[in-house]
Design goal:
By secondary structure, the protein is of the alpha+beta class. About 40% of the residues lie in helices and about 15% in strands. Helix 1 runs antiparallel to helix 3 (about 105-125). The radius of gyration is 27 Å and the shape is rod-shaped.
């Protein structure tokens, strides 16, 4: 008897489809991992920029303490415009340009606030700042330096957050939530 044995060569269509399905799951997982990595990198760049801005602000205040209410007679470093108001522009540079002396302490404070606002807009997505007393009625209270930025991921989620305390990332501007706006508060005593 003559029996013919059939020898299979190559792959069947089902095997190819299963391999493609497994490959597509791997590619989707890799894409999700890369997106998470990009998000983490963006967040770390924002945090690093906020630390640079805060150190710059504290250095400016230490160099001109007479304009911080409670330490001197001036009120030049008190800045309380809302995030929304600061999105129109950082304003025109104050006169005189205090990048070189001579300037009065009040002129220096106005120039410092303008420069800090400009730097925030440059280093943070739709960045803004706020510098106010922690408790306006208490002359011995500390200060709050807040850095605001827009987070498009939080905006797309319609996120409204609760403040979780000192140095916390929140989604509040003052007391009203603004979707997508985050803030990092620094509490300090000069």
């Amino acid at each position: 008897m003559d029996t013919h044995k059939r020898v299979q060569s190559g792959s069947s269509l089902i095997e190819v489809l299963v391999a493609l399905l497994l490959l597509s799951f791997c590619v989707l997982g890799l894409a999700r991992l890369m997106a998470g990595n990009l998000r983490a990198h963006t967040d770390s760049v924002i945090q690093a920029n906020i630390n640079l801005l805060a150190n710059d602000a504290f250095g400016r205040i230490r160099a001109n303490p007479s304009e911080l209410p409670g330490l001197g007679a001036g009120n030049g470093y008190h800045f309380e415009a809302s995030w929304s108001d600061q999105q129109d522009s950082s304003g025109a540079a104050p006169y005189p340009d205090c990048s070189a002396p001579p300037c009065t302490n009040a002129e220096r404070a106005a120039f410092d606030i303008w420069q800090l606002r400009s730097n925030a807009r440059t280093l943070l997505p739709q960045g803004a700042l706020r510098l106010v007393r922690d408790s306006p009625s208490d002359p011995n209270s500390g200060w709050v330096l807040s850095w605001y930025w827009f987070d498009k991921e939080k905006d797309s989620m319609g996120l409204g957050c609760q403040d979780s305390g000192a140095n916390a990332l929140t989604c509040f501007v003052g007391t009203q939530p603004v979707a997508g706006v985050r803030v990092l508060n620094f509490y300090f005593y000069p």
